[in-house]
Each structure stands twice: as C-alpha cells, then as structure tokens.
Amino acid sequence: MLFSKEWQTPGSAPPFVPNWYINITATLPIKLKSLQEYQNELRNWPHAQSIPSLEYLARWRGANIGCAAEAFILGKKYNSINNDME
User: Fold this and answer.
1) In terms of Cα–Cα distance, which of 50, 48, 51, 59 is closest to 8?
2) Residue 18 phi, psi (nearest 5)
3) What is the mean pLDDT of residues 12-37?
4) Region 25-47: what's the mean pLDDT?
5) Residue 10: left (phi > 0), alpha (psi -120 to 50), or beta?
6) What pLDDT shows up at residue 54?
7) 58: CB partners within 8 A, 6+ apart
8) Per-residue DSSP letters for 22-74?
9) DSSP string for 63-83
10) pLDDT reading at 83 higher than 80
C-alpha cells in the first residue's frame, strides 16, 4: 500500500525498480476486503490510498508477469534447500 512517503519530489530518492514479484491473484480479493477495515486510512479515488488504486497497482505491477502481484526489490535470496544465500 502506498503511503505519504510515496509523495516525493521526482529525483529526490532512488526510483523503485522491482526485481521480484509475488503472484497475489488468488488473494487479492481477500486483501482488498481486509483493507476496508482501515476506513480511517483509506481515501477516495483517485488517491493512492483508495481501494481502486490499490487494486490497479497490483494489476499494473503484475502486468510484468501476467497476473496481479506484489513487487519487491530483492537484495539477497535465501536458498532453503542448501541453507545459504545467493
């Protein structure tokens, strides 16, 4: 979910360039429904903290991999099979 920290002067911080995506297509409806419990935090569309905006963001981020997704910047990946870092 985007918060006020997302409101920055362009170029004042490193851009968010995700390199790791988690498919949330199956859980997106649950996520959106649960967020409705935070009515004091939510705003009306087109604010970034609106339910439609959060759904569009998941679909836009997921367009890179063909689904609704959460996007992250992965610094290190833990390999649980060998118990080591990649």
Assistant:
1) 48
2) -70, 150
3) 92
4) 94
5) beta
6) 93
7) 24, 28, 31, 68, 69, 70
8) EE-TTTHHHHHHHHGGGTTT---TTSTTSHHHHHHHHHHHHTTTTS-EEEE--
9) TTTTS-EEEE--S--EETTTT
10) no
Whether 1 contacts 38, CB under 8 Å? no
Supply the pLDDT for residue 14.
83
CA dist., res. 17 & res. 67, Å (int): 18
State the first-to-last Cα distance of the chain, in angstroms, to the nearest integer. Answer: 28
What is d(CA 41, CA 73) in angstroms, rounded to the nearest whole number?
A: 25
Using pLDDT thresholds of 50, 70 and 90, give the confidence band for residue 44.
Answer: very high
Residue 30 and residue 47: Cα distance in Å, rounded?
21
φ, ψ (nearest 5 deg) of residue 76: -140, 145
Quote the CA–CA distance of 50 and 20 in Å, as a whole number.
24
